[in-house]
C-alpha cells in the first residue's frame, strides 16, 4: 500500500511538472504581454520578398542583422516568418495573407511589388509595414510623403544616385555619345530611375536610347540590339534585369558593350562600375526600423523614409580592363574595386 501511494504521488508530481513545462512553452511562443505593459517575450516579424537574386538576398541578410542589433534574435525572442514570391507576383497576395494569419507584429516588404501586396492586404492600419529597398515610396502609392508617411508604413529607400552613375560612365568613357537604358517595362521604380538618368545624360550631351523589356527572355536579344546602337548601357535598380544579370554580362562581354548598373552585386556579376549603396546596409537599416516599431519605440506614421545620403564608387577592375577603360583617374580613396 505504501508503495502504491508513493507511485501515485510521483505520478502526480510528474504530470504537474510536464503541465508546467507545456504552459511555459506556450506562454513563450504566444509572446504575451503582461498587464503592466512589459515587453513581449517573442516578437513575430514577417518578411515578404519578391524574388531571390544576390541584391535582394543581401537585403534579407541585412534585415536579420539589423533586428539582432536592436535585440531581436532568432532562437531567443524573435520568430522570423519568411515568404519568397520567386518572381511570381501572383503569389504575393496569398503570401501576404499567410503572414497576416501568422499574426506578425510587423511586416517587411522587400521590393516594391512585395510592399504593395502587403499594403493591399493589410486592412487594419494598426499592423505596421516597413519598406525594404523601395525606390520611390510616394510614387508607388505607399506613403503620403517621404518625410511624413502618415499611416502604418515607413521604411528605407534604395534610390541610387543615378545622376552620379551616368556622370561616372561619361568620365570613364569620354568619347561616348549614346547611352542605352535597359529596364523592365512593368516596374514602376525602374521607370522613375530611368527618367532621372535621362535628365542627367541629356545634360551631358548624351543621346538616350530606351530599351524596356517585358520578361527576362527578351534580355539577350535586347543587349545585342543595344550593342549596335549605343556606347554603353545604364541599368537601374530593376529586379527583372537583376535576375538576368548573368545573361546581360555574357552578351555585353561578347559585344564589347560596357554596362553601368545601379547596385554593387551587379557590378560583381559583370558590370563595369557604379555609384551604389550597400544592399546589406539597406537591409540592416530596414531591420533596425522594424525592430523599433515592433517594440513600440517608434511610430511609422511619423517616422520619415530613410534615404542614404551618399553612395560609394565601386569598380570591377577586370571588366574595365577588358574594355580598355582607364580607372586610374578615379580617386583611390573613394573607390572600391571588385572582381580582382
From TrEMBL:
Signal sequence, renumbered to the chain: none
Lineage top rank: taxon: Bacteria
Pfam families: ABC_sub_bind (PF04392)
InterPro entries documented for this protein: ABC_SBP_TrpX-like, ABC_transpt-TYRBP-like, Peripla_BP_I
Protein name: ABC transporter substrate-binding protein
Organism: Enterococcus asini ATCC 700915
Lineage: Bacteria, Bacillati, Bacillota, Bacilli, Lactobacillales
Amino acid at each position: 500500500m505504501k508503495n502504491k501511494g508513493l507511485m501515485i504521488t510521483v505520478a502526480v508530481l510528474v504530470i504537474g511538472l510536464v503541465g508546467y513545462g507545456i504552459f511555459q512553452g506556450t506562454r513563450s511562443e504566444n509572446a504575451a504581454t503582461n498587464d503592466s505593459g512589459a515587453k513581449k517575450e517573442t516578437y513575430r516579424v514577417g518578411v515578404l520578398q519578391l524574388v531571390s537574386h544576390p541584391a535582394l538576398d543581401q537585403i534579407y541578410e541585412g534585415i536579420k542583422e539589423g533586428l539582432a542589433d536592436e535585440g531581436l534574435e532568432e532562437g531567443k525572442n524573435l520568430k522570423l516568418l519568411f515568404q519568397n514570391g520567386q518572381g511570381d507576383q501572383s503569389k504575393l497576395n496569398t503570401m501576404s495573407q499567410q503572414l497576416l494569419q501568422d499574426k506578425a507584429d510587423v511586416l517587411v516588404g522587400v521590393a516594391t511589388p512585395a510592399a504593395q501586396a502587403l499594403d493591399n492586404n493589410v486592412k487594419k492600419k494598426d499592423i505596421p509595414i516597413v519598406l525594404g529597398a523601395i525606390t520611390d515610396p510616394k510614387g508607388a502609392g505607399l506613403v503620403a510623403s517621404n518625410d511624413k508617411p502618415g499611416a502604418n508604413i515607413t521604411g528605407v529607400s534604395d534610390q541610387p544616385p543615378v545622376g552620379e552613375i551616368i556622370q561616372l560612365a561619361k568620365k570613364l568613357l569620354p568619347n561616348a555619345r549614346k547611352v542605352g537604358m535597359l529596364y523592365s517595362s512593368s516596374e514602376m521604380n525602374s521607370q522613375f530611375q530611368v527618367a532621372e538618368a535621362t535628365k542627367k545624360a541629356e545634360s551631358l550631351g548624351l543621346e538616350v536610347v530606351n530599351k524596356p523589356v517585358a520578361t527576362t527572355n527578351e534580355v539577350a536579344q535586347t543587349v545585342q540590339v543595344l550593342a549596335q546602337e549605343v556606347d554603353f548601357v545604364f541599368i537601374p535598380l530593376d529586379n527583372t534585369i537583376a535576375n538576368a544579370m548573368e545573361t546581360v554580362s555574357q552578351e555585353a562581354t561578347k559585344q564589347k558593350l560596357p554596362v553601368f548598373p545601379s547596385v554593387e552585386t551587379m557590378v560583381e556579376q559583370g558590370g563595369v562600375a557604379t555609384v551604389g549603396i550597400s544592399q546589406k546596409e539597406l537591409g540592416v537599416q530596414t531591420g533596425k526600423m522594424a525592430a523599433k516599431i515592433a517594440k513600440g519605440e517608434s511610430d511609422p506614421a511619423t517616422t520619415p523614409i530613410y534615404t542614404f545620403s551618399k553612395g560609394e564608387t565601386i569598380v570591377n577592375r577586370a571588366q574595365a580592363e577588358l574594355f580598355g577603360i582607364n580607372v586610374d583617374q578615379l580617386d583611390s580613396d573613394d573607390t572600391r574595386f571588385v572582381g580582382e
